[in-house]
Structure formats: C-alpha cells, structure tokens
C-alpha cells in the first residue's frame, strides 16, 4: 500500500518538492559514487605512484564500455518500469524486472569472458605503454572477474529509483562508498596488494550492496518483487528495454571511443604522465557530472510517469527545474576548476610534473562546464520519456559528431593543448544544438497541454 502511494504521488504531488524528494537521494548517491571512484584514485596515486595513476586512466575506456552495456539494460528497464507504473500496468512492470535480471546475467558474464581473453591487446589499443600496462592489467583483471555483480548492482539501483524507492538506492550507493573507503587502504597498504587491492575493494563493496538489493526485491509485500515466471526473456520487453537503453549505451560507447582517442593523443604528444593528468582532471570533472546525473535520475521516474499519464504541464515543469539545478551544479564545477586547480591535483599525487600537467588540463577541460549541465539534463529528459532517437542524437553530437573530428584535427597542429581544447569546444557546439532541439519539442508539449 505504501509503495502504491509512493508511485501515485509521481502524478499528484507538487513538482518542485517531488523533484527534490527524488533527486536529493540520487544526488547524494551519485556524489558518493563519484567519491567512491576518487577514493581508488587517491589511494592508488598516493600509495602506489604517479605511473599507477596513468595505468588507472587507461581503464576508463573499459569502464565506459562496461557501463554502456549496464546502462542499456538498467536505464532502459527503469524507464520502461516508470512508464508501466504510470499506466498502472503493474504486471508488465514486474515482467520488466525479471527480464532485467536475466539480461544482466547474460551480458555481464559475456563481457567479462571476452574482455579477459583479449585484455593485453585491448589495453595497448587504449593507449597503454610498457610502463603502464602492468598497472592497468592488474586492476582490470579483478574488475572484470566481478563485472557481473557490478552490472546487477547498478541495474537494481536504477530499478529501485523507478519503483519509488530513491532512498534505498541512495543507501546502497553510500554503503558501497563506505565499504570501499574502509577496504581500499587495507588491501593497498597492510596487505600490499597495490592497485589490485583497490579493485578488490570495489568489487567486494558492490557484491555486499547487491545482496541487500536482492533481499529488498524478494519481499512479496512490495509492488515489484522477484518471483517465478518473470525471468524468461520476452522479445517485446527486451526490445523495449534495448530501444530506450540504446541512447545511454551509445553515449557510453562514444565516451569509450573518445577516451581512447584522448589517451592515445596524450600518450603520443605528452607521454605517460599526460595520460595520468587526464585521469586526475577526469576524476574532478566526474564529481560534477555525477551530481548532474543524480538530478537526472531524480527527474527520470517523474518525467516517465507523467509522460505515460499524459500530464504535460507537470512534465514541462520537472524538466525546467532539472535544467536550472544541473546548470548550477556544472557552473560550480567550472568555478572550482578555474580557481582551485592546484589543490584538486595535489589530492591525487605529490609528483610536481604530474601536478603541473593536471592543473593546466583541468582548467581547459572544464571551460565550457556552465553549459554542459543543460545539455546533460535535456539528453536525459528525452531518454526518460522514451524518445530514444532524439536522446541518442544529442549524446552522439557531444561526444562523437563534434569531439572526434576535433581530436583528429587539433593535436597534430597544437600538440597536447589541441587534445585538451577539443573538449570545451565540442561541449559548446553540442549545447547550442541541444538548445534548438529542446525548443522545438517544448512547442509540441505546450500544444498538447493546451488541448
């Protein structure tokens, strides 16, 4: 009954407080998640060395690729569930939950097996050198071995939010952060496991959180719960999940491709430490990106439900509030990057050369951040209401259509600076395209509201 009430309030409670109710736990969870990633980097940089930071940076494409498959299922499933709940089709929502579990098992295991078989060639392709390969390999062997648990953990958190349980999703994420912070220094220092220790801490923390999530979904009193008969893959459900999930999938695959180009460009024109500098700058950016993603995650079930219920006035309000919040967050990130780049870099390393490279890269990379928040929220909004093609186009415009050509053209002319400057230039152009796309759809939604 309580869960029914939580679901129904998505279409009745005032939009502002509702967005805060859903977004705040997601923001806390995503902030915790970004700190979770930073913890590994800080312990690795301070405890293993500068070259280990570069090795860790080489794993970004792998992590993006794994996230791509996870998002294709997790985001697609959570959106389908939100819309089904808005339509009050609870049985269909439950079948989506079961198919989500099965898809994650299949994809998670397959990704791990294939990646482990070709790990060295893949890492060299990602920009590894003889010096950085051992660190990247040690880290990824552990991460890939536990990849199926990571996939399931992230997917179940997305479903928790869609099912009206944002606080439980937040608790799961915060738990993993706390456990990772406790375990990482133990594995790295006293147990002397080095970069592998950080990976073990990550996987163990996620496995423990997943056990708790599965207990929540095993409760028969919940509106959505695990039971017999819902795990068999159904073509219609799988197709719907993948169709919506293709946008975040494409976004993460593009991020993977982009990072490969960035790593290779930095390696070619600046060496291993330039790759490490990107790793540090990316971690700082990641904090504000994840907070904005928290806002998006809070918006997603509200937008999905109200779109499904054809409550267009509420739909437009929630995207407006989310855009304002996202812009405030990324503008704050811009200010910190421009005013405090030195302290940010010194969190991760004591190497003076790496600090200097990180400061310069961070200041350039985040120059266009005040408008990145808007672009992220609008892309997520279209994804939340099932406009997969629009969302995918906007994702591709930022990471593929504009950034990759710039990464091909600028570095041969300007060297390392060309790699860094390609990022804010592409962000600016993509934000302009997003603005015009959003204005076009806002006019359509207003007409639907008047009717």
Automatic annotation (TrEMBL):
One biological process term in Gene Ontology: response to antibiotic
Alphabetized UniProt keyword annotations: Antibiotic resistance, Cell membrane, Membrane, Transmembrane, Transmembrane helix, Transport
GO cellular component: plasma membrane
InterPro entries named among the record's database cross-references: MATE_fam, MATE_MepA-like, MATE_MepA_subfamily, MdtK-like
Subcellular location: Cell membrane
Organism superkingdom: Bacteria
Gene Ontology terms for molecular function: antiporter activity; xenobiotic transmembrane transporter activity
Membrane topology: Multi-pass membrane protein
Residues spanning the membrane: 18-36, 43-60, 66-85, 97-119, 139-160, 172-191, 197-217, 237-262, 274-297, 318-337, 357-378, 390-414, 420-441
Coiled coil location: none
The UniProt record lists the keyword Transmembrane: yes
Cited PANTHER family: MULTIDRUG EXPORT PROTEIN MEPA (PTHR43823:SF3), SPORULATION PROTEIN YKVU (PTHR43823)
NCBIfam families: matE
Family label: Belongs to the multi antimicrobial extrusion (MATE) (TC 2.A.66.1) family. MepA subfamily.
The protein's name in its UniProt record: Multidrug export protein MepA
Species classification: Bacteria, Pseudomonadati, Bacteroidota, Bacteroidia, Bacteroidales
